[in-house]
Amino acid sequence: MNKLKRISKVFASAEEIPFDDSSRIILMSDVHRGDGSWSDDFSKNQNLYFAALTHYYHENYTYIEIGDGDELWKYKNLSDIIYVHSDVFWLLSKFFNENRLYLIFGNHDMVKRDDKFVKNNLYQYFDEQEKKYLPLFENIKIHEGLVLRHTVTDQKICLIHGHQASFLDYDMWRVRRFLVRYLWRPLELFGVNDPTTPAKNYDKKDAIEEKLTEWVIREKHMLIAGHTHRPMFPEVGQPLYFNDGSSIHPRCITGIEIAEGAITLVKWDVKTKNDGTLFIGREVLAGPKKLKDYFYQSLE
Length: 300
Known about the structure:
There is one protein chain. This protein is of the alpha/beta class. The chain has a single domain, classed as Metallo-dependent phosphatases (Purple Acid Phosphatase, chain A, domain 2, 4-Layer Sandwich). It is about 35% helix and about 25% strand. It is built from 9 helices and 14 strands. The protein has a 7-stranded mixed beta sheet. Strands 1-8-9-10-11 form a 5-stranded mixed beta sheet. Helix 1 crosses helix 8, helix 2 runs parallel beside helix 4 and helix 3 crosses helix 4. The chain is globular, with a radius of gyration of 19 Å. The mean pLDDT is about 90.
């Protein structure tokens, strides 16, 4: 299927989430939660991520994870990931229990498009202390895409991971998973990176972003994606392709906030006070920009 048609198909069939200028939403992707081993890219930023999510939980944000939340190419068992990062899943379950959690699958967790896999691995988890299964995300639905629809302007924002714009990462994902799990992961130990991943290949990033931007121009809808790990935040007047970056940048994590009718690109990292004390803080990278300004642009 044509890549642009594939994105349009996801957009047309996606569940709509109504929101307005009083809504608070945080979009993050490419968390790549792993099993705690040397190849777990998330481990070095897990404290940043937990601190950020704790902030958003207390500030009444809805958390939308737009793909590659769990690293299921390198690792076979989601249960190992949940066990190692149980504090994170505990916090995510608090969002879920208050109807403030939405999950989109990406290429690295494409297995979540299988309802049976989701039921067996995400509805409940085995608690080692109590020696029994406890609820986690009971009856959760994992999406390929979502649409944010503004209840006043009726404008729509398409949310997808972005791998739909890549033949290798969408159509050939099983082959790519095999190579990552049995070839590139062992080679990482010797400092050899997978040259085919968009996160580390600028030509692939550019090609994927070009397709996503082409869809935005053709369909005249705002689109927010992940996948490339490269944050994008266009000015008003430019094509409305946004990217929330990732949670495995060196020493920081990034995300996109939608709150009080505005959109903002932020990062969380370790900062230093004047007395030398370290703390985890939020920093604005771009914005805030009023959504209505972008919406008016899409109508022109």
